[in-house]
Amino acid sequence: MAENRVFDIAVSPHVGSSQNTRRIMWDVVIALTPALIAAFWFFGPRAIMLVAASVGAAVLTEWLCLKFMKRPVNFAFDGSAVVTGLLLAYNVPAGVPWWLPVVGSAFAIAVAKQAFGGLGHNIVNPALLGRAFLVASFPVLMTAGWIAPMQWKDGERIDVQACGVPTAHLMESGELDALSGATPLNALKQTFSWEGEPERSEEVRAMLFSKESIKNLFMGRIGGCIGETSVIMLFLGAIYLILRGVLELRLPLSYLGSVALFGWLFGGQGWFDGNPLFHLLAGGVILGGFFMVTDMVTTPVTKKGRIIFGIGAGLLTMVIRRWGGYPEGCSYSILLMNLGTPLIDRYTKPLSFGEVKKNG
Amino acid sequence: MGEIFKVGFMLMLVAVIAAVALGYVNSITSPIIAEQKEQAKLDAMIDVAGSLAMGELSFDSLSIPELENPYAEVDETLAVVSVTDSTGNELGYLFIAYGKGYSSTIQTMVAVNSTGTVTGTTVLYQQETPGLGANVSNPDKFLYQFDGRIASQFLLKKDGGGDEGLDSITGSTITSRAVTNSVRGGLDALLEAGIITLEGGAQ
Amino acid sequence: MINSMLMWVIVAAPDGGEPSFSIAKMMAIIVSAIFINNYVLSRFLGICPFLGVSKQLDSAVGMGAAVVFVMVLATLGSWLVYHNLLAPHGMEYLRTITFIIIIASLVQLVEMILQKFSPALYDALGIFLPLITTNCAILGVAVLNIDDKFSLGYSLINSVAAGIGFTLALVLMAGLRERMETANVPEALKGLPLAFLIAGAMSIAFLGFAGLGG
Amino acid sequence: MSLAQDFSRGIMKENPVFKQALGMCPFLAVTTSVENALGMGAAATFVLVFSNFLVSLFRKVIPAKVRIPSYIVIIATFVTLVDLLMNAYLPALHSSLGIFIPLIVVNCIILGRAEGFANKNKVLPSIVDGIGMGLGFTLAMVIMATFRELLGNGSWLGFNLLGEAYQNQPLLIAILAPGAFILMAFILGFFNIMEKRKRGGAK
Amino acid sequence: MSKVKSFAGGTHPPGNKGLSSGAAIVRLPAPGVVTVPLCQHLGAPSKPVVKPGDEVKKGSVIGEQNGFISLPTHSPVNGKVLRVENAPMPHMRSGPAVVIKTESEDGGEVYEPIANWENADIPAIINRVKEAGVCGMGGASFPTYVKLSPPKGVKIDTLIINGVECEPYLTADHRLMLERTDDLITGMKILARVLGVSDPCIGIEVNKPDAIELLEKKGVRVVRLKVQYPQGAEKQLIYAAVGREVPAGGLPLNVGVVVQNVGTCVAVADAVCKGMPSLRRITTVSGLGVNSPGNFEVCVGTPVSDLIAAAGGYSGDVERLISGGPMMGMAMFTDAAPVTKGTSGILAMSPEEVRDVEEGPCIHCGKCVDVCPLNLVPCAIATASEFAMWEDAEKAGALNCMACGTCSYVCPAGRYLVHYIKRAQNEVRALIRAREA
Ligand SMILES: Cc1cc2nc3c(=O)[nH]c(=O)nc-3n(C[C@H](O)[C@H](O)[C@H](O)COP(=O)(O)O)c2cc1C
Ligand SMILES: Cc1cc2nc3c(=O)[nH]c(=O)nc-3n(C[C@H](O)[C@H](O)[C@H](O)COP(=O)(O)O)c2cc1C
Ligand SMILES: Cc1cc2nc3c(=O)[nH]c(=O)nc-3n(C[C@H](O)[C@H](O)[C@H](O)COP(=O)(O)O)c2cc1C
Ligand SMILES: Cc1cc2nc3c(=O)[nH]c(=O)nc-3n(C[C@H](O)[C@H](O)[C@H](O)CO)c2cc1C
Ligand code: SF4
Ligand code: SF4
Ligand code: SF4
Ligand code: SF4
Ligand code: FES
Questions:
Q1: Minimal Cα–Cα distance from A42 to chain B, Å?
Q2: pLDDT by residue (tens digit) across E154-188?
Q3: Are residues E371 and E268 in the same domain?
Q4: Which of D51, D57, D65 to mutate to test the interface with B (most CBs of B within 10 A)?
Q5: Hey, are the CB atoms on E361 and C182 less than 8 Å from each other?
Q6: C-alpha to C-alpha distances, D66 to A114, C115, D7, E390, nearest whole angstrom
Q7: How many domains does chain A have?
Q8: Of A58, B98, C96, E148, which cross-links B74 as Cys (Cβ 3.0–4.6 Å)?
Q9: What is the pLDDT of residue D116?
Q10: Domain check: are A208 and A66 in the same one?
Q11: Quick check: is A317 in a domain?
C-alpha cells in the first residue's frame, strides 16, 4: 500500500470566480483611457500632463501612507489608487496648474482613503472628496480654469466656444462675452439669474438645448473638466466594463434615469421645460454615472439600496444645478449620498428567504 | 416649606445681585457702545465722503417722503445723508446700497455728488466666501472701477455693459453683480426723486 | 394688569423686523438651517452631543427628537421674554442670563411633566434631557433668532429647522460611525480623531449646498 | 497638591480641549485666526477665574439643591460682563467672535471646573486652577488657530509669513468649517500617538 | 417539454463534470483493512458494541443507535476487529471508528426482505430503514427514518427526489440515475407510500439530458431545472419545483415537503427489498490531480488513498484533496481518511483549479448580496463575525445561512465569507443557549 500523503487544508469553497479586486481596478483604468484620448484631442498635451501628475501623486501617497502605517505596501499597486488619481484629474478643469491635481490626489488618498483605513473602509468617494477639497481651497482656479476645446479646420487649430453652443449667432448679438470661458452648465446657470430678462434667458437656453449643442456635448467639443466632456468615449469605457462584468447596472441606470427625469421636470426655468438629454450629457453626469456612482466601496450593497442611492443622487444633482451655488451638482450629490450609504444599507436589508415581514 | 423658601431665597439673592451688578456695568458701557457704533459709521462716512471735498464735513440725514426705496426688503426707508462742508455748502449725498450676493446681503456705502457721479464707495458688510466674493472688501479688486461713473454706467461687462462695463472679480460674478446692480438701483432712485440730476455731468 | 398681559402676547415681531410673512422667506430659513448653515457642520453649534451621542443610531434619533422639542420650547420662551420684557425696558443686556435660566428651567419642567404624564416618552428621551441644558445649539438658536431679528413665527420655524438639521447630521454620523467600527483605521486616529475626520468629510459634502436658493 | 500643580494641570495633563474634549464648539468656531483665539481665550479665562473664585468663596453658603442654577447665574453674569466690556472697548473682536461670547455660558469647561474643582477647594487654588484651565484652553486654541491661519491665510496673528504668492492662493479650506474638523482629527491623532509612546516607554 | 425552473440568486461555476460523467460505475472490492466510522450521520455517533479480536460478519451491527437522531452502524465485511480507535475523518479531524481486517465479502447477515412492501405495515418499513442505518446520501447525512416519521399533525403532500447534483465535478448521482434506474424508482415509490404522497417527482438539472430522458421514459415525473448553483439545496429545490418557501429556520416538513437524494432512494430500496443494510455508496473521484477520473461503488471505510489508486493515482502536483464538491466540500489533510455514507466525491485538485487569491478587505461590491440564494447580506455577517460582534451577526441572519459558498465564490476580495459566517453561527448558537439558560 502506498504511503499516505498529507495535504494543506483550507476552508470551502475551493474554487472561485475569476474576478478579483486587482483585476476590477485595472479594468476600470482601461475603461477610462478612451476619455483620456479625447482629453488629449480637445485640450492638448497639458491634459495628459495633469493626469499623469495626479496618478503619480496618488500612487506615491498611497505607498507612503502604507509604509508609514507599516502595512503591506503592495496594496499601493492594486490599481485602486490609480483609479482615484485618474478620476480626480478627470474632475478638474484643464487650465489649472500642475500642482493642483497633485495636492488633490494626495488629499484624496491620505485623508479620504488611508486615514479611514484604506481600500474598502473609506466612507466617501476619495476622488470626489479630493475634488471638493480643491473647490473649497482654490475656488478661483477650480471655477475659472476652463479652457476651450481645440478643433481643427482645414488642418489648422481653431478655438470654439467652450459652452458648446453655435457661436456665430452669439457673436453677432454681442452676447458672446456674456458666456466667455464658460461651460454649458455655467451658461445655463447664468440664464437662471437673468430673471429680469426672460427673453434673453429663453433664447440662450434654446441654443444650449439645440441639436447642434447636444451633438457637441456628445462628442466632447465643449469646455469642462478634463475627463468629463466626451460622452462617446465614456460610453466606450462603460461598455467595456459591462462586458467584463464589473458594472452592475442598477446604480448607473437609476442615477441617469433620475437625472433625466428631474432634468426634464425642473431643469429649465419653469416646470416641465428642461431638456433631459442636455442634462444627461452636460457636465459630469456620464462620468459620474458610470465611474463614480459605481464606486462600490462607498455605495450601498443591497439591490434596493443601490436604486435609492441612484435616485437620490440624481435628485440632488438637479437641485444643485437648478438652485444651488454651483453650476454642477454631480460630485456633491454623490458625496452627500455617500454619507447616507450605511443608513440606506441598514434600512434596505432584504428579507431573507423564508422570512415573513413582521406585522407593525 | 422653610427649606424651599430658603433655597428660593438664595437663588433669588444670587440673581438679584447679578442683575444689579450687570445693570451697573451696562450703565457704564452702553453709552460707550452706542458712541463707538456711531463713530464707526461716522468714520466710514468720512472715509467715503472724503472724496467729495477736503476739510471738515458735516452729515445730515434727509427724510425724503417721495423716495421709493429699491431695497424695501432689507430696509423700510432708503437712508440718504446729505454732506455739507464747514460753510454749509451742499457737496453731495451718501446712501447705503443693499445687494443680495452669493451668501449674504452686501451693504455698500456710496458717495455721489449732486450731478450724479459716484465719488467713493466702501463695503460696510459682507459675508461672502473668503478668497472669492469676500474680495469686494478689497478696493483694489473691484471698487476701484466705481469712481466717476453715473447710474447708467453701472453694468458688468458680462451683463451687457460692453467695453465700458465693469470687470467682475474673478470667479465671483454673483458678488460683483450684486454690488454693481445695487449701486445702480440706489442712484436711479435718487435720480427719480430729483435729489440728484445729471445736468452737465458725465454722459 | 390684564391689559399688559394681552400686550405681551400680541407683540410677536421685533422692532424693525418684518411683520409680514412670506413663504419664500420661510423656505429660505428652512433650507439655510438644515443644509447650508447646518448648525453642527457649518456653525459648530452642538458639537458635544454630536460627538457624544452619535455612536449608535437609536440614541441618535432619540437625542435628535429631544433637541427639536427643547429648541422649540426654548425659542418660544426666550423670544417672548426678550421682546416683551427685556427689550421694552432697555434690559437687553440681561439676555444671556435670562435665556440660560429659561432653558434650564424648561428642561427641568419638561422632565418633570414627562415623568408624570408620559413615562414612556420620558424613558425614551429622559437620559438626553439633562445633556441638553449645556448644549450650545439650544442657547445658540435662541440668541440667533434675536440677532437675526426674526419674528416669532420665523423664529419657531428656524428652531424646528435647526433641530432637524442637527438631527440629520447626528443620524448620518451615527450610521457612518457604526460602519467605521469595523474599519481598519490607523491606530493613531482611532476614537475621537476618527469622529472628527468623519465630521470633516460630512462638512465638505455639505458645502455642496452652498448658495442653495441664492 | 501644590499651587504649581493646580496651575500646570490645566495646561498639559488635563488640557480641556486635547485631553478632555471639552469646549469644542467655541474651539472649532473661533480658531480661524490667532487673534480670535487669543480673544476667546482671554474671555473664557476671565469667566473661569471669576466664577471659580465666587463659587469657591460661597461654596459653604450655597445650598446643594440650587448649586447648579446658582453656578449658571454666576457664570452668566461674568459672561455678560465680558460681552459688554468687549463690545465697548474691542468692538472688532466682539463682532468676529459673535455668538460664541454668550455661548461661553454653556461651555462645559467652566461649569465643569465650578462643579468639579471650585466647589471642593479653597479660594486660592480655585483661582489658580481657573487660570491654568483658561490658559490651557487658550493655548489649545492658539495652536489650532496657528495651523488654520497659517494654512488658510498665509499669516500668523495678522503678520504675513508665507508671502504674497501663497496669500493669493492659500489653502482656503483650513479656515472653513471642514478644515477645522479635519485639522482637529490630526492634532488629536498626534496626541494619541504621543500618549501611546509615553505609556509604551513607561512600561 | 416542460418549463425549466429555478430559484432567485445563485451562480454558475464551471461544471467540469465531463471529466467523469462518461465513466460507468466501477465496483471496488473491499480493501484489506476497513476503517468504519461510527459518526457517519448527523446526530449522535453510534455506540461501539465490538472489541478488538471480535469476529464480525458482513452486515452485523458494530455500533448501536445512540438516541433519536442516530443510527446503527454495520460491518461492511466479514473479518476480525483490530482496533476501536479515533481515526482521521473526511469531515472532521478525527472521529471514533472500528478498524476491521477483511476476510471476505461474501454472504453475511442481511435482514428479511420486505418483498410485498406495497402492502406491508408502514411502521415496519420505517423500522427497516432505521435498522439498516440509512441516512441521507445527499449532503447532511441526516437519518432518513426521522424524515419519514413526521410529527403528529404534520401533513406531507409532496416528495421531491433530489437528482440535481449541482456541485461542479460530481457525477455520482448522475451515474446512479443512469445505471440503477429501477432501484431508484422502487425506492421512490417506497418513500412515497410511507409518506402518503401520491405523485412524487424528481428534480434534475438540464445538463443531464440522458438521465431526464431515461427517467421520463420509465414514467417518472421529472422537474427540469436550470443549471445554477445551488439548485440542489433543499429550500431552493422546493422553491423551484413547487414554489413553496420554507420558512427561515424551518424545515421542509413545515411546508408539507420531504426531499430525498437519489442515492438515499436506492439505499432505501436495497434495505426494504433486499434487506441490505447501508454498507456501500457511489462516489466520484475527479479533479485534474488524478489520472483517470471515474465513479466508484465502494465500501464505507475504504481509505481515500485506495480510491485515488483506483482512479489511476495522483498526476503530478496536488494542491488540495477534498471530500465532497469544490463548493461545500471539506479539505482533507490526509488521504488515509475513510469513505463514509456521505462521501459524494473525492477531488484531487491541481494548483490551477484551486482558487488562489489573497484575502483583501471587503470592497462592498455587493456581489455576495446579489447571489445569496437566501437573500442574506453575507458581507455584513462576515464583518460582524470578524469583529466578534455576535449580536449584530445574529440580527443580520447568520443562522439562516446554509454555507452553500456562493458568496465566497463570487467575492472579488477573496473573503472567507463562509468561514466567518460558520464561526458566527457557532457563537450565536452559544449565545442563544446562554440566553435561554
Ligand atoms: C465654495 C464656493 C464659493 C463661492 N463663493 C462665491 C462668492 O462669494 N461670490 C461669487 O460671486 N461667486 C461665488 N462662487 C462661484 C459661483 O458659484 C459661480 O461659479 C461664479 O459666480 C461664476 O462666476 P465666474 O463667471 O466669475 O466664474 C462660489 C463658488 C464656490 C464653489
Ligand atoms: C436538528 C434537525 C432536525 C430535523 N428534523 C427533521 C424532521 O423532523 N423531519 C424531516 O423531514 N427532516 C428533518 N431534518 C432534516 C432536514 O430537513 C434536512 O433534510 C437535513 O438537514 C439535511 O439537509 P441538507 O442535506 O440540505 O443539509 C432535520 C434536520 C436537523 C438538523
Ligand atoms: C448548497 C447545497 C447544495 C445542495 N445540493 C444538493 C444536490 O445537488 N443534490 C442533493 O441530493 N442534495 C443536495 N443538497 C442537500 C439537500 O439540501 C438535502 O439535504 C438533500 O437533498 C436531502 O436528501 P437526503 O436526506 O436524502 O440526503 C444540497 C445542500 C446544500 C446546502
Ligand atoms: C466601478 C468603479 C468605480 C470607481 N470609482 C471611483 C471613484 O469615483 N473615486 C475613487 O476615488 N475611486 C473609485 N474607484 C476605485 C476604488 O473603489 C477606490 O479607490 C476606493 O474607494 C478606495 O477605497 C472605483 C472603482 C471601481 C471598480
Ligand atoms: S459643555 Fe458646551 S462647550 Fe463644553 S463640551 Fe459640552 S457643549 Fe462643548
Ligand atoms: S452539494 Fe453535492 S449533493 Fe448537494 S447539491 Fe451539490 S452536488 Fe448535490
Ligand atoms: S451567505 Fe450563506 S447562504 Fe448566502 S450565499 Fe453565502 S453561504 Fe450561501
Ligand atoms: S462580494 Fe466580497 S467584496 Fe463584495 S461585498 Fe461581498 S464580501 Fe465584500
Ligand atoms: S460646545 Fe457643546 S454643544 Fe456646542
A1: 23
A2: 999 999 999 999 999 999 999 999 999 999 999 99
A3: no
A4: D65
A5: no
A6: 50, 21, 29, 46
A7: 2
A8: B98
A9: 87
A10: no
A11: yes
